Amino acid sequence: MLNVSKNSAVRPEVVLPGKRICLIDDDEDQLVILRRLLMKSRAKIESFRSPLMALDKIRENPPDIIVLDIMMPDCDGWAFYEELRQQESLAEVPVLFVSCLLNARNAPFMRDEHLCDSLPKPVRKDELFTKLVGLLEN
Length: 138
Prior knowledge:
By secondary structure, the chain is α/β, with parallel strands linked by helices. 35% of the residues lie in helices and 17% in strands. The chain has helices at residues 12-15, 28-38, 51-60, 77-86, 125-137; strands spanning 20-24, 44-48, 65-68, 95-99, 116-120.
């Protein structure tokens, strides 16, 4: 269990050591930004530019959490999320959607509140860690 109160500042080096985080975004620049934001977290970071390549890898060894873009060419984030929920070994892995496409129209998709959350791009470090901690604590 992560020991962080809701009113305290989230210190990345304290809350994520040893956690496995899978980043999925077709934009290499976004992956670089996310890796930099997570650099001091002491988490184990694995990144993929293709959701299909990520799915094969995470089936073998599920991460603690997935940070997922929505709009990607070979498989969008929504379809990937639905596929995750169909896989018994991955059905309970929390997902943090990170996209410039998040709006009220997409909100109904976020029905699995304890397994799913979202952040708009550009991502702010404090918001990223707050959301990651919140999902990992559930």
